[in-house]
Amino acid sequence: MEIPAKDLTCRRDTRLTPEEKLVFAGDLDRRGLADNVWDLFSQWVERSTDQVTFFYLKVFSDTRLLALGMFVQIKPIDLRASYSGLRKPGVLDKIGALLSRVSSNCVVVSFRNLITSNHTRTFFFREPEVEQAAMGAMLAHLKADKTADMVTIVDTSANQASYDEAGFASFPSSS
């Protein structure tokens, strides 16, 4: 079943119903994951704050749930974490802190390697045939999100084509 990504819609949500969890039972089986992974995710969502928000990005074809990804949004992000020059003690550090407060930058990050085993992605699909289109829809949604100044997704090079097609830059990781 080939579905064009443009025919899919994404919606951000902070909960999964029991019925929605069942949609991904086959994907969990294919990966050798227990369904209590949802308990782990819901615990992270419950710990959200005004500055750190955990959420699911759900992908639909009409009203049919096809996929979801787990993300965290951090706002504001301290620019000093990204720019080593701003971490130096003194005036630059103070300027970096001020710029971070004023700019209120926002970063959205995927969850691979943070709360699941190293080989697991926090993207789930109703069936393998929808993966490419669903990933395309998620990436297009994240790229169009004007509230996010930066989107970081940790993934393996086996999935590089999806990111290339969506116009994301890739950077190597030691892991």
Keywords:
175 residues, alpha+beta, six-stranded mixed sheet, 33% helix
Structure description:
- The chain has 175 residues and is an alpha+beta fold.
- It has helices at 18-23, 25-31, 37-46, 91-103, 131-144, 160-166, and strands spanning 9-13, 52-61, 64-74, 107-110, 123-125, 150-152.
- Strands 1, 2, 3, 4, 5 and 6 form a 6-stranded mixed β-sheet that branches.
- The longest helix has 14 residues, at 131-144.
- It is globular, with a radius of gyration of 17 Å.
- The chain starts with 8 loop residues before the first strand and ends in a 9-residue tail after the last helix.
- The relative contact order is 0.17.
- The model has no long low-confidence stretch (mean pLDDT 80).
Straight-line distance between termini:
34 Å
What is the structural class? alpha+beta
Rounded mean pLDDT is: 80
What's the helix-strand series? Answer: EHHHEEHEEHEH
Shape: globular
Annotation, overall tally of beta strands: 6
Low-confidence stretches: none
Largest sheet: 6 strands, mixed
Number of helices: 6
Helix content: 25-40%
CA gyration radius, whole angstroms: 17 Å
Strand content: 15-25%
Please outline what is shown here.
With 175 residues, this protein is of the alpha+beta class.
Annotate the secondary structure layout:
Blueprint: E1 9-13, H1 18-23, H2 25-31, H3 37-46, E2 52-61, E3 64-74, H4 91-103, E4 107-110, E5 123-125, H5 131-144, E6 150-152, H6 160-166
Parallel strand pairs: 4-6
Antiparallel strand pairs: 1-2, 2-3, 3-4, 3-5
Helix pairs in contact: 5-6
